[in-house]
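Possible regression after last week's pipeline update?

I re-ran a chain I had predicted before the update to compare outputs. Posting the input and the new output here so someone can diff against the archived version. Not blocking, just want to make sure nothing changed silently.
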Amino acid sequence: MNSPWAVILGASSGFGAAVAIQLARNGMHILGVHLDHSSTLPSAEQVQAQIRALGRQAIFFNTNAADTDARSEVIAWAISEGISVRVLLHSLAFGSLKPLAGSPDAVTKRELEMTSDVMGHSLVYWAQDLVSSGLMGRHGRIFAMTSEGAGYALPQYGPVCAAKAILEAHVRQLALELAPRDITVNAIRPGVTLTPALGKIPGNNQMVRLAIARHPVGRLTTPCEVAKCVAVLCHEDTYWMTGNTIRIDGGESSVGTEFFLVPSSEADA
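New output (post-update):
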């Protein structure tokens, strides 16, 4: 177990799975945490198989990463094995997609707090445990997956918008506090990407069409492209990059949406 480990929260699909496989390709063992039922469990098993095929260890816990006892179980295993954690990736996409107000289906207090806890605050708790236990030391890299929703209002996306804003605020604060330990903390903001999480967002088809229309290359970002960039950011020479929200979108966010929201005759003018 001399090779470093990466802890991937949300390791069974989407960005978490892609980053796990890429980091394994780059020489890291993977400690994955995911929450899957029988219908989606094969995806987690496939990710583990790909990691092991690369000659790396894949230890996965099928549990709720936002649960205190579950987190303690994972941390206890890591301590007992004496592993060295080089990377933490927070890629949890579980929350309520509901209006905040003005609707009989408005989000409840419990749902709002759960969304903020899972997609925002849990980053802090994992960072606390990994650092205080000594599992992550100098040259550690912490990444949190965010989205454009952190800075925009989108229909029925309010609880997640708030959680992502919380997440980015935590990234900045953790970067400040962990800098003396030579641990960097950055948020990753990918372009619109086809993941299981995207499929749950109301109006996702329109989001996909708009993203393709405004993208300089004319297509969506892929999880593998994001994973390759994250792997590069894990290099020890990136120690001076911290506290950022880094866009990995092929230039998608550099093109304003306003052009595509007006009639074509006006846009052509």
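Follow-up from reviewer: compared with the archived run. The first strand starts at residue 5 and ends at 9. Marking as no regression found.
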